[in-house]
User: Fold this.
Amino acid sequence: MADYVTIANLTLSLIGEDDQLRDPDQDSHAARAVRAVWDEVRRDVLRDHPWNFAIARRDLSAVEDIVTYPWAAAFQLPEDCLRLLEVLDPPGCRDTFENEGGRILADTAGPLWVRYVRDVEETGLWDALFVSAFAARLAFQIADRITGDRGRKDDAFRAYRAALAKAKGVDAKENPPVVTVESDWITARYS
Assistant:
């Protein structure tokens, strides 16, 4: 599994930087540039795709004393939630809810089961394809600061898009086909 230094060095290599890191706390221009944007870029790349390694499920309890008009209740999203993928249960809420201000508003008393992309900070848990995509996106972010070469920045962005496309294809093959659940509207319309 890749660690911080390995990923940072992959990033620097993508933009043609010869100065490689030996330590995460190294005091160099390249190390400071990587550290400055690491967390923000990680969250951005995790939000860009429902990465299999970052998906989680949780049941949520209703939050008291929150104005939810016209909804019955509000449910606080988990702190590590970067992107809500779906409301799983109860069935009546699967397609009738709102994601607003870090809460889900729905017409149920709860609990509400959700599936979401979580923030995975530990690099040892990252999928190899995520590492490639993250390094390319990080390279895009720091290329101007390190090299001042717009062409390298453009190359890094193309590498990111290619890595993301490859990861989406592989992730799709790792899961069975998605069976769509007919909404209440469809059921009522054709019943």
